[in-house]
Amino acid sequence: MLPVLEGVVMELQDCALPLLREVIPTDKEDVAFKDLDAAILVGSMPRREGMERKDLLKANVAIFKSQGEALDKYAKKTVKVLVVGNPANTNCLIAAKSAPSIPKENFSCLTRLDHNRASSQVALRCGIAPNNVKNVIIWGNHSSTQYPDVHHCKVNVQGKDETAFDAVKDDAWLKGEFISTVQQRGAAVIKARKLSSAMSAAKAICDHMRDIWTGTPEGEFISMGVYSTGNSYGVPEDLIYSFPISIKDKNWKIVDGLPINDFSKAKMEATAAELVEERDTALSFLGV
Ligand code: LMR
């Protein structure tokens, strides 16, 4: 991949970014991870035709164990790690477990892409810009079991805040097609482009990292996959699970106390069950 990296370096230079001082292309972990403040782990083994989910997990456990160990050894203890490569939640958990000297709270996985997809679907349906849709939630896994939840969403229509259900005026769509569209969006992009999402994923990574550094506005939350231990929603412990999150001073907090109805509860449990299974399979490869 080193010749490919040369192309990436050229593109970065060609962006003429005012804050970019230096680019160090390398395939050496001790160089790549040295003194990092932020790590965005994008690379993972993609699923190929005929590959079992188990085989995919096995290959990725090896990659993220090695990257976690390298973070533990070379990065700053304050490093913020964002895992993007799929299966992102479980890869993130393995990286965190492989870096015992770095707090688990410093690790998160990307569900902002799903969050943006959900906001955008609601906005398109209402004929408004997506920045008028706040507080959608992605619960669980960055997979087709994720639960895009609009029960706490605020939609600003012509200067007035409304619930998503009042703004969209189509409960059946919100409880059906909306959810499956967001759940299947990654696969739909791959089908159309013959490649995984690129620009929207990059935008979501920027949104995620910017919010960690600068915080979320009062009363607003975003979605990210974080360590589940200690959550108040009854999600099993020791998972990387996507929750509604607010951020201040570079520390995230799960937004507590949102009422959860039976419809939501069942969907939150289904995606948690998938993550428990992924975690247990991944840990068995580590011999834990
Ligand atoms: C996406 O959501 O666009 C990607 O995670 C899909 C994929 O499997 O690469």
Ions, cofactors, ligands: which are bound? Answer: (2S)-2-hydroxybutanedioic acid
* Low-pLDDT residue intervals, each spanning 5 or more residues: none
Summed over residues and divided by their number, the pLDDT gives a mean of 95
Treating each run of at least 4 consecutive H or I residues as one helix, how many helices?
A: 10
Alpha-beta classification: alpha+beta
Strand order across the largest sheet = 1-2-3
Counted beta strands: 11
Largest sheet: 3 strands, parallel
Strand-and-helix sequence, N→C? Answer: HHEHEHEHEEEEEHHHHEEEH
What sort of overall outline do the alpha carbons produce when their principal axes are compared?
globular
Oligomer class: single chain
Distance between the termini: 32 Å
- The share of residues in helices is 40-55%
Q: How large is the radius of gyration?
A: 19 Å
| Percentage of residues in strands | 15-25%
Domain Lactate/malate dehydrogenase C-terminal: 111-285
GO molecular function: L-malate dehydrogenase (NAD+) activity
Pfam family, one: Ldh_1_C
Domain Lactate/malate dehydrogenase N-terminal: 5-107
Topology:
Layout lengths: L1 H13 L14 H4 L5 E4 L11 H22 L5 E4 L4 H10 L9 E3 L2 H15 L6 E2 L2 E3 L7 E3 L4 E4 L2 E4 H5 L2 H5 L1 H17 L5 H16 L7 E6 L12 E9 L2 E4 L7 H25 L2
Parallel strand pairs: 1-2, 2-3
Antiparallel strand pairs: 4-7, 5-6, 7-8, 9-10, 10-11
Helix pairs in contact: 3-4, 3-10, 4-10, 5-8
The structure holds (2S)-2-hydroxybutanedioic acid.
The site of (2S)-2-hydroxybutanedioic acid has 7 residues, from helix 8.
EC number: 1.1.1.37
Organism: Danio rerio
Family: Belongs to the LDH/MDH superfamily. MDH type 2 family.
